[in-house]
């Protein structure tokens, strides 16, 4: 049985539901703001509300694994349910786990998130290439086998990232540019969009264009930083240039702060999706 690649499924979801990814980030302050306890019961109520409000209308939901893991096995059980329910309602699920390792350990991470037999099976997962891009090979192989995807950290919005990502090799090429070049090679020939994406902060402004970095990898570009971190949808064309068509902006707090009101969560997500669509769709 041939599995449709993640890139094709994501392109369709972005075109029909709007180019937006909403994070599921149940950190303690947000649980409190929702009137929930900072415990497993609050975690479950929060996650269920977000999934019920948004999974049938946004392109991608992105649970942040750490906020579930902090509650141990019971928190992971809540995450498993959230992933399954979100996918059943039609959303693509991007697991924000930022895993990175070598050999059999990387293969185990890939099996945890990208194998349909896993209770945490997701449509894609974030990965870290900073043990060398080649260390991601088991995840790349798993993604190709199962029709899933990867988003590799490339140019993140946190200021500390620059000391690694903007570092240059002997040929003058930055580490970030090398990662992006590898992703472009993975996506070669894939239509309408490749399955191997990059994480590029929407807050980086002209610094990306000024560095001469090619963001047109043929795959999706996950763009955190919209909303609470200061970037707006109107900033996207300046940051991403010709690659803006493949940008998937990620919003968390600016949508989630409207909960637990389901209607308010939906209105906020729909507003962001329309604002993004207005600047990225030709």
UniProtKB/TrEMBL annotation:
InterPro entries: Aldolase_TIM, OMPdecase_AS, OMPdecase_type-2, OMPdeCOase_dom, RibuloseP-bd_barrel. Keywords: Decarboxylase, Lyase, Pyrimidine biosynthesis. One of its GO terms (biological process) is 'de novo' pyrimidine nucleobase biosynthetic process. It comes from the Bacteria. CDD domains: OMP_decarboxylase_like (cd04725). Gene3D superfamilies: Aldolase class I. Pathway: Pyrimidine metabolism; UMP biosynthesis via de novo pathway; UMP from orotate: step 2/2. Residues 19-268 form the Orotidine 5'-phosphate decarboxylase domain. The active site is at residue 98. Its EC number is 4.1.1.23. One of its GO terms (molecular function) is orotidine-5'-phosphate decarboxylase activity. It catalyses: orotidine 5'-phosphate + H(+) = UMP + CO2. Coiled coil: none annotated. Belongs to the OMP decarboxylase family. Type 2 subfamily. This is Orotidine 5'-phosphate decarboxylase. It comes from Streptantibioticus cattleyicolor (strain ATCC 35852 / DSM 46488 / JCM 4925 / NBRC 14057 / NRRL 8057). The lineage of its organism: Bacteria, Bacillati, Actinomycetota, Actinomycetes, Kitasatosporales. The gene is pyrF.
